[in-house]
Design goal:
The complex is a heterodimer of chains A (174) and B (227).
Chain A lengths: L1 H11 L3 H26 L8 H13 L5 E8 L5 H21 L4 E11 L2 E8 L12 H13 L3 E5 L5 E7 L3
Parallel strand pairs in A: 1-2
Antiparallel strand pairs in A: 2-3, 3-5, 4-5
Chain B lengths: L5 E5 L3 H13 L3 E6 L2 H10 L5 E5 L8 H7 L6 E5 L4 H8 L5 E4 L4 H21 L3 E3 L4 E4 L4 E4 L2 E3 L3 H12 L5 E2 H8 L9 H12 L5 E4 L3 E4 L4
Parallel strand pairs in B: 1-2, 1-3, 3-4, 4-5
Antiparallel strand pairs in B: 6-7, 7-8, 8-9, 10-12, 11-12
The chains are: A alpha+beta (174), B alpha/beta (227).
Chain lengths: 174, 227
């Protein structure tokens, strides 16, 4: 219902900037609305299929872009429910950034999660033109940084080899 | 006026902290850091000793709550609690720590800004009230703000470790300060040779009138003060 209200506002808004801002907000809300939906459907409340959750978020984001992008899901670890809400938001921002800045017409985005020793890894990698998401002080990256460093108490690394890769790692709370 | 506040936000939901931080910054406040838990709060204090105001969430999603965390912190800093809890037990517990204010979430920005103005004013006044010139025996005086030592209003040049030593002795207000404490504080980074501290004390002594530094042989030294 919140999303519907926002969408009504988008349709009636005359200003392009306002439309963009509302659209971004809509996607952010959607990222955790999806989590609650999946939690509702799943009985096992300790773990949730991360691939399922991430696919939902990505499908919602890519609707708003016209490029032909292939998404590869390399999900080797199901993220805990507690962290999922933050990771969903992070994914939403990173995929949005890639779709906005990385591609002309087509490309690939790879989404990865794994666990090694005590650390959980999550990365979003595109094979686009290689943009530096930290070059503009966008709200999206500020949100990603805040969630990674302050909430998950993890690390964030950016690398630019044939595209842009954002890797975050953190320790899961017991 | 508001620039004299250096704020630390403690709030377990990082995006709320980010939002609050951005709003305060846009009004010209200095938000030094925002953190989501006890560990980060303690680290932030060590990293930024100039923090002089806390905005503290009470429910922190860990066993320690914001009030207990406040009690653990070393300095008696002004604190404004931010909380969704308005039950008597929580309020009483919070009030016992003499906070500057207690704001119920969702925050009314005007209330918060009014409290911050109050905090800023109180900070200015408390600075004016603290004594800045300390009178020492034999017409010596020490200006704690500018860190200047004088005798009969004549400036005595003193710096480096000698100045640090003098400050430690003045802070002790005439009590004995143990040698091991001085060594640890003054030579934190590299342990001193055996005679370094002794030489330093000798050098400070020669800047002051003879009998002003009193030694307790195996324990420590003290600076005679005017009571």
């Amino acid at each position: 219902m919140v999303i519907s209200l926002l969408q009504l506002q988008i349709h009636t808004s005359e200003f392009q900037n306002t439309k963009h801002a509302l659209r971004a907000t809509c996607n952010r809300i959607n990222s955790f609305a999806k989590l609650y939906e999946l939690l509702h459907l799943n009985q096992d409340i300790e773990k949730l299929p991360t691939k399922n959750y991430f696919t939902n978020i990505v499908n919602n984001v890519k609707m708003h872009f016209s490029q032909k992008i292939e998404f590869i899901y390399d999900i080797q670890y199901n993220i805990s429910i507690n962290d999922s809400i933050y990771c969903g938001l992070i994914l939403n921002e990173l995929v949005t950034n890639s779709l906005k800045y990385a591609f002309d017409k087509e490309g690939t985005i790879t989404i990865h999660t794994s666990k090694e020793n005590d650390l959980i890894y999550m990365s979003v990698q595109d094979d686009g033109r290689g943009y530096d998401p930290s070059s503009n002080s966008s709200l999206g990256l500020t949100i990603v940084r805040t969630l990674t460093e302050k909430q998950l108490q993890g690390d964030l690394r950016l690398s630019f080899h044939k595209g842009t890769k954002t890797l975050i790692s953190w320790k899961e709370k017991e | 006026m508001i620039s004299n506040l250096h704020i630390l936000i403690v709030e377990d939901e990082s995006l709320l902290a980010l939002d609050l931080s951005m709003q305060l910054k846009s009004k010209g406040y200095d938000v030094v850091d925002y953190v989501t838990n006890t560990k980060q709060a303690v680290e932030s204090f060590e990293k930024y000793p100039h923090i002089n105001l806390l905005l503290m969430d009470i429910h922190l999603n860990e066993t320690t709550d914001g009030i207990d965390l406040y009690k653990q912190l070393p300095h008696n800093l002004p604190v404004i609690y931010l909380t969704a809890f308005t039950d008597d037990a929580t309020i009483n517990k919070a009030v016992a720590t003499h906070p500057l204010g207690y704001l119920v979430k969702p925050l009314h920005k005007q209330e918060l800004f009014a409290l911050l103005k109050l905090a800023s004013l109180q900070h200015t006044e408390s600075l004016q009230n603290t004594q800045t010139i300390i009178q020492l025996p034999n017409n010596y005086a020490f200006d704690t703000i500018n860190e200047i030592l004088t005798q009969h209003d004549q400036h005595i040049k003193i710096g480096g470790k000698k100045l640090q030593l003098l400050k430690l002795l003045i802070e002790a207000k005439g009590d004995f300060v143990p040698f091991h404490f001085l060594e640890n504080t003054l030579y934190r980074d590299n342990p001193p040779g055996e005679s370094s501290l002794r030489t330093l004390i000798y050098r400070l002594r020669s800047d002051l009138a003879n009998d002003m530094i009193e030694t307790e042989r195996t324990y420590g030294i003290r600076l005679k003060m005017i009571n």
